[in-house]
Amino acid sequence: MIVFPNAKINIGLNVVEKRSDGFHNIESVFYPIFDVVDVLEIVESDELSFSSSGISIPGASSSNLCLKAFQLLKNEFDIPPVKIHLHKMIPIGAGLGGGSADAAFTLKVLNELFQLELSNEKLCAYSRMLGSDCAFFINNKPVYAAHKGDEFEAISLDLSAYKIVIKYPNIHIGTAEAYGGIVPKLANKNIKDLIETAVVNWKETVVNDFEAAVFPHHPAIKKMKEQMYLNGAVFAAMTGSGSAVFGLFEKK
Q1: What is the pLDDT of residue 142?
Q2: Active site includes 8?
Q3: Phi, psi of 110 (to 5 degrees)
Q4: Is the pLDDT of residue 156 over 90?
Q5: Cβ–Cβ < 8 Å for 81, 47
Q6: Which of 38, 88, 108, 133 is labelled catalytic?
Q7: pLDDT digits (tens, 9 = 90+) for 5-21
Q8: pLDDT single digits (tens) 121-141
Q9: What pLDDT does 47 receive?
Q10: In the predicted model, what is the mean pLDDT of residues 52-61?
Q11: Residue 50: which residues within 8 A CB-CB, separation 6 or more?
């Protein structure tokens, strides 16, 4: 079975507080991007294996989230070994959620392939064991995200009237680097309320806290955002903890 795990963007991101477990509580809006995808193939096999092509994936293959997703279900269901191949096209360390999408889609494929009949609610629960934003890719619809980025509230947000342009500066922003420059604080106004206003207002109201931490060390990323506005973007921002930048452009 072949599927296409998609990217997501963050429209605004506030780091609210540091948790006692070392993670941070955030608030953000997650929006799926179906034009930016990886390619994931999973077939039944005599032995478990994982391979990849495309963008090089750092670290040992044995630690890949796709394999972890398989093992998670294998621990509870008598499923046979599979052969997993991932063609990686979503940039890594870009704030686009590619790794999380790959893990979530692995769960969805295994559920269908072996007729486990797991509900989306149950798949979300498994996804949360793999990563904070993995569960988003189970339903793959716009949400307001809170807590660690793993608790969601469905929202009505349709950006189909805009062309979404994403630029990746080939800079990897690690989680430790991104959070190292952050001072958690409550936002003056909830992002969920801000995105209900006209998109033309977002430039002045919707912010990503990570920009203040990342831009001074990576001016090329700041320049990319500025160029989005110079080229006519209605709204532009870094997504997640970086380093990709997106812009919303009126199609007309």
Answers
A1: 97
A2: yes
A3: -60, -35
A4: yes
A5: yes
A6: 133
A7: 999 999 999 999 988 88
A8: 999 999 999 998 999 999 999
A9: 96
A10: 92
A11: 61, 62, 64, 66, 67, 84, 85, 86
Phi, psi of 94, deg, nearest 5: -115, -5
CA separation for the pair 99, 92 (Å, rounded): 8
What is the spatial distance between Cα 157 and Cα 185, in angstroms, rounded to a whole number?
A: 26
Determine the pLDDT at residue 177. Answer: 82
Residue 193 has a CB neighbour count (10 Å cut-off) of 10
CA distance 232 to 90: 25
**Cα(136)–Cα(124) distance, integer angstroms:** 8
Tokens 């704030």 belong to which residue? 95
Structure pTM? 0.95
Q: Which residue segments constitute the domains of the chain, with CATH numbers given?
A: 2-153 (3.30.230.10), 158-250 (3.30.70.890)
| Active-site entry in 8, 88, 108, 192 | 8
User: Is 133 annotated as catalytic?
Assistant: yes
The amino acid present at 201, given as its one-letter code, is N
